[in-house]
Amino acid sequence: MHKAFIRAGRNRSNASGARGPCLTVLAAVCLGFLTVATPALAQTATARDAVTGRSIEATLTIAPAPAQLAAVESLVRARLDEAGDTRSLALGPATRLALEVPAAARVEAAGYRTLYTVLRPSADNRGWTFLLEPVDRPRSAPTEAGDRLLITGWVHDAASGRPLEGARISSDRGAAETRSDRNGAYSLTLPALRDGPDGRSVVTLRAEMPGYAPWSKRDLFPATGRASVPIALGAGPPASPSHRQLMGDPIWPSAEPGSRLAASTPLDRADQPPASVTVGFGDAACSVSCCTGQCGHSCVMPLETYVRRGIGDEWIASWAHDALAAGAVAYRSYGAWHVINPPAHGAYDLCSSACCQVNDPDTFPATDEAADVTAGLMLMRQQAVFRSEYSAQNNCLQGELSCVNPDLSCGDGFAGSPATGWPCLADPVGQGEACFGHGRGMSQWGNHFWTQETPARHWKWQLDHYYNDSGDGSGLRTAVISQVLSIESVALPPGPVVPGGTLTIDLTAANLAAEDHEHVLIGASLRRGSDPFVDDPANDRLVELASGVSATSRPFSLPPDLPAGDYALWLALWLDVDRDGAVTGVDLVQELVVIDAAVVVGGTVFRDRFEP
After folding, report:
1. What's the pTM value of the predicted model, to 2 decimals?
2. Closest by alpha carbon to 332, among 387, 261, 256?
3. pLDDT of residue 5
4. CATH number assigned to the domain with residue range 148-237, chosen from the 4 options 3.30.1380.20, 2.60.40.1180, 2.60.40.1120, 1.10.3210.10
5. In this structure, what are the phi and psi dihedrals at residue 254, rounded to the nearest 5 degrees?
6. How far apart are CA 105 and CA 87, in angstroms?
7. Element spanning 198, H or E
8. Whether the Cβ atoms of residue 229 and residue 153 lie closer than 8 Å to each other
């Protein structure tokens, strides 16, 4: 077993400082941990299925914690394990929870993944909804549904989470309609819709049921394919339109995030994705978006659930995979930064409207896939998660669209906002396009335009282009993609190996993402001294790495004429960016380790002995 090896790829970023919770703070807050609810703290807590929105039975376990504790699974677990005053309670549709101090929390339910988070009570917060992911959540389904648009979802009561049967679902596109079944499920088929130049359409979806106010949602949908739209009746309609690209004068987040709490519990690894995000909503069903300071409810969801719910509200689901995957990394990193740097107002990490990042329950197979293939990946700058800003069109040309870039000095054909720390970047795909947004970070329409070029630019290239100027960046344009996969140990067979034989490389690997990675390549090479590398591309095969630490292996076929000697092993984990099943320069290396004198080649074999 080789435990000591040289890491030649990305270095792990370890934050400095004490690791444990702030005991002096804990001692001060333990008094009055759970109390009788007062009018100012009349909070409720409920658990819901993250896919359907329906209420589920769950158990909430909490322990007092510093407000600055980051919602990272290892930190929350440690606090719950060491706490001497942990409390548990069963969650129903609206369980009363009088929480007066911050708490580390674990939410568990049969058939669902455990959720870890930090609860920060506020006088303005009416309660928490915990969105739990089913253990057997299906991976991204095919995006095609024939020459039609298939909209599916579940109808439920916003307050109780109870499924509603008999709700009438229709749209503004023809006479097609359907009704929800006894489980609240519905399926509405529309003919192919091709209003937009990029295979998209604006559709208004409607729901009606006796005893409830009519519900409607006007949003962007792909012309064909599938969409999942859960419907919560009784909470009021979602913001209309909810997609930022449809807003005539959208609100764009400011460059300065404002007053925030100082972190007192550094992460074990700076690139560790948070376990969950707490998002401000206007209702317990997590369906009515709101701006910071106007959100009365906190919805806690896994980080990857947050990304899947949000990409289609900021990017356009009919765009190419690489545009959506670049967006997934930016969306995830922006949200994660707000989790690790919690706001001073306390109740939630960020809001659900265009004031922050738009987030609502609808999802699409294409955006699900973009989230899955980039699971856990964020942008890092100065060994910390980066607040990765983006806007619709960053070309520095004033037009008739909503442009709030204070500095268009870069000129047409360039992106940037030097006055806010984003240097000029040559971005020819935007030339002639009017500025739309604040001009900072990545250009969303640039994402789309780059996938239409010949050759099309993949998502890794786009992130490097917009956030690092392809390695030549300065100012805020100096962020890199994080490391989510790492090699923990390597084991090789003892003794010499024979030319022409097969060497089996066993390794354990860590996946920091909460989701499995299905598109991982294990690359390996041998090298004797300064000789040319000995490669084995035929065995650079795809493997799936589960979330957490898992074991896997890779065969290496030795050439029959391989000279005898001591060889170093070069071993790397790659994410298959171009999805061709082979290691190429397009792919994203996650970690490279070099083990000196790892393999001894013994020479030509004659019967039962080695010939030197």
Report:
1. 0.92
2. 387
3. 62
4. 2.60.40.1120
5. -75, 160
6. 10
7. none
8. yes
In the chain, which residues fall in CATH 2.60.40.3880?
A: 485-611
CB neighbours of 608 closer than 8 A, spacing ≥ 6? none
User: What CATH number matches the domain at 23-136+253-319+339-370, 3.90.25.10, 3.10.105.10, 2.60.40.1120, 3.20.20.70?
Assistant: 2.60.40.1120
* Pairing status of strand 168-171 against strand 200-208: antiparallel
Phi, psi of 340 (to 5 degrees): -75, -25
If you write DSSP's letter for every residue of 251-310 in order, what string do you get? ----SS---BPPP-S--SSTTPPPSEEEEEESSTTS-S---TT---EEEEEEHHHHHHHH
For 578-591, the DSSP string reads: T-SSS--TTSEEEE
Q: Say which CATH topology domain 485-611 has.
A: Immunoglobulin-like (2.60.40)
How many Å separate Cα 106 from the centre of its chain? 20
Structure tokens at 487: 């090699």
Alpha-carbon Rg for the chain, nearest whole angstrom, is 26
Query: Averaged in consecutive runs of 10 residues, what is the pLDDT profile of the chain (612 residues)?
Result: 53 38 32 42 88 96 90 93 90 89 96 96 90 85 71 96 97 92 97 81 94 94 93 82 86 86 70 96 94 93 98 96 98 96 86 95 96 98 96 97 96 98 98 97 98 97 98 98 97 92 96 96 97 96 95 97 96 97 96 96 52 38
Label the pairing between strands 502-511 and 55-56.
Answer: unpaired
Whether the Cβ atoms of residue 308 and residue 375 lie closer than 8 Å to each other: no
